[in-house]
Write a structure and sequence with these properties.
alpha/beta; Arc Repressor Mutant, subunit A; 2 domains; elongated; binds calcium ion
Length: 229
């Protein structure tokens, strides 16, 4: 289910947007300030974020910068809401990393249309991941190797999806736990090894296990080019 986070301190607007989004079939979580929003991010892992410009603690622009600093949220679509209509504010909002911009009063119909458009764009963007002979379709939740459909567990799939979208870099167990399992999830680091092992076994069946490498003392890496481990 698509999850949307709304960060807005004005209760009336927040409730109205929440109601409309829930009615439109989205899962919604709400924050009334930047601090709350930042606390929700790791748990809720939203697919899209709506941020109001004027927030009581730090500004929406600063919040967007903070959101973009999180590696997992670099591509998350963000819509900025504002009561201002000056061109320069719009520019600084977009500069900070917002993908779209709406001036209050918010038209729900317009907001829904923009959300749809942004989600379509972002889902197309990361819909299919291809590395070597691996084709991973995020929407369909399928993996094909050499055009053969591969059966795999939910966690192995998510792990592979993460690796395929972040190739050629080494990740520690802690980082993998944060990115794949989510922060604030209390899972032992050993769990990562168990799932890496399972994933490697699957890849081995297709003779592509070399692509998933152990970097001694550091963690794991997914790479076609670098296999001198
Ligand atoms: Ca506000």
């Amino acid at each position: 289910m698509t999850h949307i986070l709304i960060v807005e301190d004005e209760l009336e607007i927040r409730k109205m947007v929440c109601f409309a989004l829930t009615n439109a079939g989205y899962e919604v979580s709400e924050a009334e300030n930047s601090h709350q929003a930042q606390k929700l991010l790791p748990d809720k892992r939203p697919d899209l974020i709506i941020v109001d410009w004027m927030l009581p603690d730090i500004s929406g622009v600063k919040l967007i910068r903070k959101i973009r600093q999180r590696e997992v949220n670099q591509q998350t679509p963000i819509i900025m809401l504002t009561a201002r209509s000056e061109e320069e504010d719009k520019v600084s909002g977009l500069d900070a990393g917002a993908d779209d911009y709406m001036t209050k009063p918010v038209s729900i119909r317009e907001l829904l249309a923009r959300i749809k458009a942004l989600l379509r764009r972002s889902q197309n963007y990361e819909n299919i991941l291809k590395i070597a002979n691996l084709h991973l379709n995020e929407t369909a939740h399928t993996l094909h190797i050499d055009k053969q459909l591969v059966a795999m567990g939910y966690t192995e799939f998510n792990l592979l999806k993460f690796f395929m979208s972040h190739p050629n870099r080494v990740y520690s167990r802690t980082q993998l736990l944060n990115f794949v399992w989510g922060e604030n999830v209390f899972v032992e680091e050993r769990t990562v090894d168990v799932h890496i092992l399972r994933l490697r076994k699957i890849l081995k069946t297709y003779k592509v296990d070399k692509i998933l490498q152990t970097v001694r003392g550091v963690g794991y890496r997914f790479s076609v080019e670098l296999n001198d481990v």
